[in-house]
Amino acid sequence: MEFPDLGKHCSEKTCNQLDFLPLKCDACKQDFCKDHFTSAAHKCPFAFKKDVHVPLCPLCNSPIPVRRGELPDRVVGEHMDQRCQYAPGKGKAKIFTYHCSKEGCKKKEMLPVTCDQCQRNFCIQHRHPLDHGCKPRSHPGGRAGGSATRASEPQASGALSTCSPHWLARRFRWKTRR
Asked: What average pLDDT does range 9-28 have in this prediction?
C-alpha cells in the first residue's frame, strides 16, 4: 500500500470497499462506493428530506404545496376538508351541449356549428345548408344587406342554378370522399 491515506471506505456496513472516487450522499453526508451511493441502495434514513414529489389532490387534481418536514397525507387531507374546489354533489360539467337542429338527429357537439343562412345549430354531418334543408330566416331590418336586398338580386345563372340541392349535396359528398 503505497498511498494509505488515498480514497475512502464505503460507509455501507456490509461493503466497506476502499474507493478512490467515493460519492457522498447529499442527504446523510456519508461516503459510498458506486454500488451504494443511491439512497435506496444504502437505505438512507434521511432520504425523505430530498424527496420533492408534489402530491395531487385526488378530487380536484390540483398540486398541493408541502413544506419540508410536513407529512403529505396530512396536508392533502387538510386541503380536501377545507380548500378543495371539487363539489361532490355538483358532478362534472357537460362537454357536448350543442344539439343538432336537424329533425331526427340526436347528435351533440362540443362547439356550436351555426348555419350562416338560418342561424340554427347543427352537428358536423348536417352543417352544410344542403344537408339540413336550409330555409333562411327572414329578419326584418336584420343583418347588413337584409333580406330585402337579397330578394331584389337576380338569380345566379348557369348550370348550378338548374340542379337540385339534393343532387348538389350528393355530388359534394362524392367529391370529398375521393
From this structure: 86
